[in-house]
Amino acid sequence: MLTPSFHFNVLNDFQAVFDYQAKILVDQLEVAAAGNSEAIDTFPYIKRCALDIICETAMGTTVNAQTNHNHPYVIAVAEMNNLAFKFQRMPWLWLKPIRHLTGFEADHQRNLNIVTSFTKNVIERKTKEFEESGGVDVDGSNKKKAFLDMLIEMREDGGLVYEDLREEVDTFMFEGHDTTSAGIGWALWCLASHPEYQKRCHEELDTIFESSTRECTVDDIRKMKYLEKCVKEALRIRPSVPQFARTVDEEFEIDGTILPRGCSLLVSPAFIQNNPRTFPNHETYDPERFSEEEIAKRHAYSYIPFSAGPRNCIGQKFAMQEEKTVISWVLRRFELSSDLELLDNLPLPETIMRPTRGFPLKLTVRN
After folding, report:
1. Per its Swiss-Prot or TrEMBL entry, what cofactor is needed (predicted)?
2. Which parts are annotated binding residues for heme?
3. Residues 21 and 55 sit within 8 Å (Cβ to Cβ)
């Protein structure tokens, strides 16, 4: 039911949001880097940019996270992510009395109330607008629709109630900014560690934009063939989602072991995509792994940063378009470098593949 919401025509409408927020990001990075010879951690900037993008595209509202770092929703989202990972790796927190005694439950409830109240208010406002207009574009503006607008339009056909709308929007809000910010950050980190590949990206982007500061369009995105290879290779070596779970629908055998129906499997792109039998020198960052010739040699499921099959990531085209837009703006404005080697920044597999040291990059404004 939701798949049409990610048709390429819808993504085309979102491109203006990607472009606008990416420009705010590079302006903020330029201010932070001005007169500063030291590396700056770009990860918080990227996360705020991704949060603004998903707020506008998923809910049709803005929190201005890039300019308003103290917005309650921005802080609550960050806290919820921290609490979720803490809960996952500390089994004693699964006991309710301990959650209350340690204050975990109070922190969780406080932040949850902020997040759900914000979503509730947006849903109520959007629903009221939809009902008052009779479901039509009353002002004739034919303006772009957010994901929430589409959900409201299809709610009767799909039998959706308020709680369904809230859960879907909250899912996209969380999964739609943490994952893309990690993807953008790791791609920039890989390029900063490999100036030869960064140079080829600069050359490609200079050919497309001719050193102008004009907006990045959907047509421009399609022309970024080499940058796409670089993004895909970064997602191979450091997938945004390091692991995900699946339930076995039918009993089957693998390597002599019977896996019964109903059991859970943990699938790890972080291991699958770093298999030395499939990817020789797997720790080496090499965008040419994604040339057409190399892709044809591999099994289709040897590379699954967005999962695969009927339960794959519904937002993968959205993510790639956003990441290419934001990365292209950063590379149009800056040359990137780092004092650390690629592998010195160890990956921390939380809900997303987080860098242990952030993404400390030196940014030099390009001529």
Report:
1. heme
2. 313
3. no
Note down the domain range covering 31.
3-241+312-344
For residue 15, what is the domain's CATH number? 1.10.630.10
Does a structural domain hold residue 361?
no
Tokens in use for 206? Answer: 């200079």
Type and span of the H or E element at 31: helix 8-33
| Annotated binding-site ranges | 313
Whether 226 maps to a domain, the answer reads: yes
54 within a domain of the structure (yes/no): yes
Q: Do residues 47 and 181 make contact, with C-beta atoms less than 8 angstroms apart?
A: yes
pLDDT score at 7 = 62
Cβ-based burial of 336 (10 A; exposed 0-12, middle 13-18, buried ≥19): buried
Q: Is residue 323 part of a domain?
A: yes
Count how many Cα atoms sit within 13 Å of the Cα of residue 202 in the half-sphere of its side chain. Answer: 16
Of residues 10 and 236, more confidence is placed in 236
Q: What are phi and psi of 246, to 5 degrees?
A: -140, 150
Closest CA to 191 of 239, 228, 140: 228
Residue 268 has pLDDT above 80, yes or no: yes
